[in-house]
Amino acid sequence: MVKIAPSILAANFAKLGEEVLEVEKAGAELIHIDVMDGHFVPNITMGPIVVEALRPLTKLPLDVHLMIENADSYIESFAKAGADYITVHVEACPHLHRTIQLIRSFGVKPGVVLNPHTPIESIQHVLEDIDMVLFMTVNPGFGGQKFIHSVVPKVKQLADIIKERNLSIEIEIDGGINEETIIPCVEAGATILVAGSAIYNAEDKGKALQAIKEAGLS
Ligand code: DX5
Ligand code: ZN
């Protein structure tokens, strides 16, 4: 089963609610929310207030991707705003285990994110504690970038470990996903695919979403 998580980073913010409902209606399984702080990544986007505004609007799980420093200081706000998943970057969390516990303590599903160059060895010892691993297939900070193929073997490596250790962890992939790049990701074991520009820049967003999903299922 392949799940699609449209990234609202590529949506029209002047009609955000409408654009979330449009992808929900078209069969999206999660809504991906990119939070950037201008420190960990060179861009600034949105905070808990956007999660709070979307929460009553959609039934879909809200998948909050934190690209921020000092994540611990903001987890409670995102949890109370209604996040279902909170994912944090390994590269930005010196006390990763503590951060994961903090997310869990608010009843939110914790996940960890790896930049394209970060090896999966860095998360070996927290796999029992998390619900999701998110692989970046672009350098975080912006939508609309080109998919980095060298990440795919890492996805396969983790999928093998998950099977071997009989763990229940979603493998999410984020960056440059379209009808073509989804194929090697699903083959490698991805279960959730984030797509921003490939959906929101299309004239017919629902059709674009369905085409990506079908490519992933074939
Ligand atoms: C990048 C973000 C992504 C981004 C994906 O830092 O984490 O979620 O919105 O956008 P596309 O699908 O356009 O690469
Ligand atoms: Zn993201």
Can you characterise this structure?
- There is one protein chain.
- The protein is of the alpha/beta class and 218 residues long.
- The protein has one domain: Aldolase class I (TIM Barrel), CATH 3.20.20.
- Helix content is 33%, strand content 19%.
- It has helices spanning 16-25, 48-54, 75-81, 96-105, 152-164, 182-188, 197-200, 205-217, and strands spanning 3-6, 31-36, 62-67, 85-89, 109-114, 132-136, 170-174, 192-195.
- Strands 1-8-7-6-5-4-3-2 form an eight-stranded parallel beta sheet.
- Helix 2 (48-54) links the parallel strand 2 (31-36) and strand 3.
- 42% of the residues are buried.
- Bound molecules: D-xylitol-5-phosphate and zinc ion.
- This is Ribulose-phosphate 3-epimerase.
- One of its GO terms (biological process) is pentose-phosphate shunt.
Q: Could you give a short description of this structure?
A:
The chain has 218 residues and is α/β, with parallel strands linked by helices.
Structure annotation, total helices: 8
The major sheet is characterized as: 8 strands, parallel
CATH homologous superfamily - what is it? Aldolase class I
**Gross CATH architecture:** Alpha-Beta Barrel
Low-confidence stretches: none
Radius of gyration: 16 Å
Strand content: 15-25%
Helicity level = 25-40%
**How many domains would you count in the coordinates?**
1
Query: Gap between N and C termini, in Å?
Result: 11 Å
Widest sheet, order of strands = 1-8-7-6-5-4-3-2
Element-by-element helix/strand order? EHEHEHEHEEHEHEHH
The bound ligands are:
D-xylitol-5-phosphate, zinc ion
CATH topology: TIM Barrel
CATH class category name:
Alpha Beta
How many β-strand runs? 8
